[in-house]
Amino acid sequence: MEQPESAASPRRIERSVTEARIQLAQLIRMVAMTGEVVRIVDCGRAVAAIVAEDTAQSRAELVAVRDRARTAAAGWEHRVEQVRATMGRQQAARIRALEQLLGEAWRLLGDRFPPGTDRSVDAARVAYREATTRRPS
Predict the structure, then answer these.
(1) Which end of the chain has fewer CB atoms at under 10 Å, N or C?
(2) Are 2 and 8 in contact (CB under 8 A)?
(3) Are 20 and 75 found together in one domain?
């Protein structure tokens, strides 16, 4: 019961549990020499495989590398979120400080040029009120 050979993967051979039990020593030697994969089926369903040791190690190494990469990615994602939150807090603090300074500047400007005494200052007041009352969309 051989399956067609695939160019992308090693040739796979399929044996029933009974056949595999009878041919186990031969199958192990064949796999070790050729690198082929032997699938063991029970009632038409694949239940096990015989693979070469280097293939099994490569698979285990691949899984370990993938797990390390996932762990590292999760760590970096967590760190990026921490930095994003910190930067957001810092930016909010800077905005509050600038708003306080700007409010103080308008108070000083109001003391120096009360409303109605200077047209350009009055125009700036109107523009400032419009800009600060609009909500960003």
Answers:
(1) C
(2) no
(3) no
Q: How far is CA 38 from each of CA 6, 23, 45, 97, 112, rounded to the nearest angstrom?
A: 14, 11, 13, 71, 92
- 72 domain residue, yes or no: yes
Could you tell me if 16 and 41 are in contact, meaning their C-beta atoms sit under 8 angstroms apart?
yes
Q: Is residue 29 part of a domain?
A: yes
Q: Residue type for 37, please?
A: V
- E runs forming strands in the chain: 12-16, 37-42, 45-50
Query: Are 89 and 127 found together in one domain?
Result: yes
Question: Residue 1 above 50 pLDDT?
Answer: no
Strand-strand pairing, 12-16 and 37-42: parallel
Residues in contact with 66: Cβ distance below 8 Å, sequence separation at least 6, in sequence order: none
Q: With respect to residue 92, please indicate whether it lies within any of the assigned structural domains.
A: yes
Confidence tier at 4 by pLDDT (50, 70, 90): very low
Residue 91 belongs to domain spanning: 56-133
